[in-house]
Specification:
Blueprint: H1 2-9, H2 23-35, H3 42-61, H4 64-79, H5 96-113, E1 117-119, E2 129-133, H6 141-152, E3 160-164, H7 174-180, E4 184-185, H8 188-196, E5 200-203, H9 208-211, H10 227-235, E6 239-245, E7 253-256, H11 258-264, E8 270-272, E9 283-286, H12 300-324
Amino acid sequence: MAEIRNITSAPRRKRPGASGPGPRQRSVDADAVRATPSGQSLWQRLQEFGQVVASAATQHLAPELLRDLDTEIATKIDAAPLATNDFGFDPWGFEKETARRCFFTSALLYRYYFRVQTRGIENLPAGRVLLIGNHAGQIAIDAAMIATACLMEGNPPRIVRGMGEYWLSRLPWLNILMVRFGSVVGTPKNCVDLLEHGEAVLAFPEGVRGMNKGFSERYQLQDFGLGFLRLALQTGTPIVPVATVGSEEQAPSLGNLESLAGILGMPAFPMVLTPVPLPVRYHVEFGEPLIFEGNANDEDHVIEEKVNIVKARLRTMLRDGLERRVGIFS
């Protein structure tokens, strides 16, 4: 064995004309290769880099107000009822650290840009609940403000699970952020799984019909789908109507270029008048829970009667919210 060690440690002669590194350099390179994380995608490496930069900026460069907000969000997320594993993920892809950074942005918009006023958050029950809201604004900022209200104002804080459009899941980067933030593709299976797991699920039965309607149709509820009511009956879930006033004026649209949307593979292509959403004041109101009984497989006209009750409650809440509002920006 002593003879073998001597042979291994003896310096090797470099061959004449050889251009490669000597034995010591090869050893260093081998260590570096072993230290490089294997199996990581470019997205994972960019995520790690972003986490380091964001953490350094938050801890050392950000004003005290931003540091306090970041701490408050982290505290709220820790207090929310979640079933995450040791790495911070839940079964649907929600991840605490990424969600904290997303909520940081939405909380800034919530408090300082849209200056959201929230009413009735105490109506949010513990356990499974289906939040049903009016949809508007061309992009789903209303969903982000409702989710932020549930986290920042809820007692306990709640992570809202949004039912996203199928189209969103096809967009690179955004599709991952959407899942890490707590949303999922809006399939009935996902919705049932989340409700049976005791989650708060947010859905907009108007869909694109509501979100991308023209300015002349603001605060006019469009046709509701029936699926959410069937899922509520199937899972025995209370429905909380959520009325949002303000989103309808954030991005006035003259109409929808459906042909161009079809070419681009988008659900809609609104002709908005402003490049960025206007700083309107949001008013988000959570109504009292509605509990329905019946067969989830009833005929459409039976289900539609129950849907109309939810729609009427939302219409009343919107009317009352508009009457209380002093101005679009105040």
